[in-house]
Design brief:
The structure holds three protein chains of three kinds. Chain A is built from ten helices and ten strands. By secondary structure, chain A is an alpha/beta fold. Chain A folds into two domains: 170 residues, Rossmann fold (3-Layer(aba) Sandwich), CATH 3.40.50; 80 residues, no CATH class. Chain A is globular and about 55 Å long. The mean pLDDT of chain A is 87. By secondary structure, chain B is mainly alpha-helical. Chain B has a two-stranded antiparallel ribbon. In chain C, α2 crosses α12, α4 crosses α5 and α8 crosses α10. Helices cover 72% and strands 1% of the residues of chain C. Chain C has a single domain, classed as ABC transporter involved in vitamin B12 uptake, BtuC (Orthogonal Bundle), CATH 1.10.3470. The relative contact order of chain C is 0.17. The longest helix of chain C is centred in the first third of the chain and has 27 residues. Chain C has 14 helices and two strands; from the N terminus they run ααααααβααααβαααα. Classes of the chains: A alpha/beta, B mainly alpha, C mainly alpha. The interface between A and C is large, with 48 and 34 residues.
Chain lengths: 252, 287, 328
Amino acid sequence: MRPAAGAPVLTVSALSKRFGSFLALERVDLSVRQGEVRAIIGPNGAGKSTLMNVLSGQLVPDSGSIVFAGQRLEGRPPYQLARRKVGRAFQISSTFRRMTIYENMLAAHNAAAGRWFSLHPGRLRNMRAAVMADLEEIGLAHLAEQVVEDVSHGDRKRLEFGMVLAGRPRLLLLDEPTAGMGLQERHALIDLVLRQVRERGVTLLFVEHDIDVVFRAADYITVMALGKVFAEGRPEQIAANVQVQEIYLGSR
Amino acid sequence: MLLQQVLQGLMEGVTLFLIASGLTLIFGVSRIVNFAHGSFYMLGAFLTFQLHGRLWAGSVGGFLLTIVASALVVAALGVLFEFFVLRRVYRSEELMQLVITVGLVLIVEDAVRFIWGQDDVTVPVPAALQGALVVKGTYFPLYQLAIVLVGIAVLGAMWLALRYTRAGIILRAATDDRGMVALLGINQATVFTAVFAVGSFLAGLAGGLAAAFESVNFLLDSRIIVAAFIVVVIGGLGNLYGALLGALAVGVVKALGLLWAPRLSMVLIFLVMAAVLMTRTLRRGTE
Amino acid sequence: MNRDAPAAPPVAPPARDDPYRIRWLPVAAVGLVAASALLAGPPLIVFALTEVMIFALFATALNLLLSYSGMVSFGHAVYFGIAAYGVALSITRLGWPMWAGILAGPFVSAFFALVFGAFCVQLTAIYAAMLTLACSEVTFAVVFQWFELTRGESGISGHVPAMLGLAPGVYGLVVLAVTGASILALWRVVHSPLGLTIRAVGQNAARAAALGHSRRTVQLIAFVISGFFAGVAGTLFSVFHGNVFPDYLGTLITVNGLVMVLLGGLYNFSAGIYGAVLFKILDNLLAHYFQYWQLVIGLILMAVILVSPRGIGGAIQSLARRLPGGHR
């Protein structure tokens, strides 16, 4: 746990989203500092995934604003957010399944390099060293020639994470990154994530259900319930918060 | 003249609805785009021709029975296809599924050519329905009215079944959320087979009904499949009521088009479809 | 994790397996065989081979869409035929010299692909495919009905001497050169950064968007490239016969093209080539002896998907990979 340093780099103000008559997000405010690791927790139906989907451009909010590094992000489609260095990993790992691990990472590098429309095969060949280096870092270099479809779930998640990082994002959004993983895999992934994030000074915002993982990783925690921000604080503060315990136990 | 064309349009709309509803049901539940649906329609028409006159020859009841019987045979063939072939590609990519159903189209087309030859066959309308209802000087052919009635009956039966029978409720649930239905302990494979059977039955039924007024030959499948897809796309894949609206709209537009701008009627339908698709996308905004 | 193992240097694959290099030996061999057949063979073979090459290009252009960009085109013949009309009309109506008209053909196709594609990429899956069909059918109807401009059913002929007045074998060589260059250009597109982008968008548009790619822009680019080369094929075909008819935009060409790609196998660059050859064999040879050859194609398609989802092309590739000499 480090004290969060720096000025707020992500400011979410009065973000609201309704689906028909159901109010999924109600005037959510959030302020995240540069380089901070922020966890978003809360009981089911609290609006965590909706918040993530709005932040990553999958959903357009009804009202409110999202400002990141001085730019307004709300309502922008996902590909524009990616270009503005907002990285996102999907809850159900989303990769290019028919391609090999190497090609997946190559695609990520290709997109980040800026000349994705080039017709020179040489450019792809020149990326080889960088791609292999990235694969080394996430421990998948030995599987480079494997087709992603044939690879394990945990490896796919790591690949996706590596691809997201290849874009050198400044803000990283992860929606339940350890979902569907066993205990060991979970810790391994979160350690990998933290290491990369701290090394590069990336601001990380993630939704998690596993409290272990949350307390291990987060600098600061936002608790959501019923579409609103319920409580915020450092992990030890949240752990001691009786009301937070209640909303969790109450919803069982 | 106008009313006459409208009735004609409604009749074609009803047959389109029958085939489109099968197509949209199959997609709604199993996410399969069944290009062979036109082939089932064609088989229904040819089988009606083949069985014609064997069951209570000449009577309307016998005629109806013949059509239903052919539709049942088509459904049986559909089930065989689903069970032995389609099942293996449910988990494959959509393009693979396309190839499989296209393969069936080619096979059925040549099979039909082999069995019944290349020429048109005709199915005569039963004597009792050969006349027309004359209202204020306009002719309303009885057969067309009969088809519209059959369509209403089938629609009513479908509505009742979907609402009040267990099978119907399962079907609606499956369209909404396949996974959930599986979790409820209902065998997903059986649901898929059942819905394919129902879908192909409807296509065969439509073919049987249409046999009396369409020219029945081995190219019937390609003629109808495009219209069926247009209807399904206009109405929204998986949307039964959309299929109804779309079918009636296409049927009437086509009939009126034939009246006012005969050379452009098919183009008109494509333009209608394009317009519907584009306005729907523009309204939805970001994907 | 990997921190305990001694760091191994990243391993580059042997040059033979580098997917971004063309294996020139097989390509040159095929080219030589084709050239000799064209120069020395009987007219029947020359005509058949010329047509196969033209449709191999058409199918390869269509394959770019089907196998890589995630779009299905149900009306690709429109880009084949409109090029031919572009050639004919620019020569007869605009008074352009013959060569200018011929060169204009593919660009007319590209223009139509740009306009139609702009609408079609706003949709996805079957909806987009149906819109491509609509575009094709509407264009066909316009071409067919607008007698004053296109002479409708009668078509236009004589604007270009059939085969440019060359001997069939020589024109065949021209076709070989042009289709060869075009297919190589398409190969380069697929294996370039643009190709990787197209493949990414086609396989998983959401993940590609998360990487920064706009699905619509990328698919439109693929659509225009595909339309352009379909237009090259259409131009070659039209010059081959010295005429153009509405049927050049028609359903038959679209369907044949689709069947060729499907026969040749999806997700495979050479699908169009294998498919065109196979289709020609079935269409010409088989049709003489067995009039129900469509049934054979249907069975082949089914069998191929059930046994080897990557199609005949894929099966050949897997086989070739097992041979010691490297693969194509």
